[in-house]
Amino acid sequence: MKHLVFILSFVLLSSCSSVKYDFQPGIDFSQYKSFSFVPSIKSKTLNRQRLETSLINGLELKGLVFKPKASVADPADLVIKPRYQIVTNERMVTAHGGLYHRSYYAGTDFYFVESQERYLVIEFVDTRKNEVIWQATSYGFNAITFSQEKFHRIVSDMLQYFPPDLTKK
After folding, report:
1. Would you say residue 134 lies in a domain?
2. Domain containing 126: what range?
3. Which of 76, 73, 48 lies closest to 155, judged by CA?
């Protein structure tokens, strides 16, 4: 029974990517009614298209209106800036060296292992002030491509904190 509880808790915890968020205090988030995305210079990848679709669906459920043709003359209230952040970590691994017996001349072998972690960062920028007012980061985003369903899950995990509960911070 103990093993079953451990396995279930491990599966539940490992299936979730953790989300951290931050926001600018003192902002009235009810003033924002529309949003658009930062224009992309390059062609949109499949991941970018899936991410934008998930963000549009999630924000429209929260009552915001997507303005695909936002311009300087008719800007959206918020500009969404999704991006990936890649962090390279390096750690040293040591192992006992030498022959099959312990001797004074046996040394310790060591080598460095490099790993990369990918984070999905979404920033909401107020177009009137040109300031980031809300940001969420999803950790554990190490796959290169995701299905639309996986993006929906990740984005809904991130958007559960938007608008932020101002009584908690």
Report:
1. yes
2. 17-83+121-159
3. 48
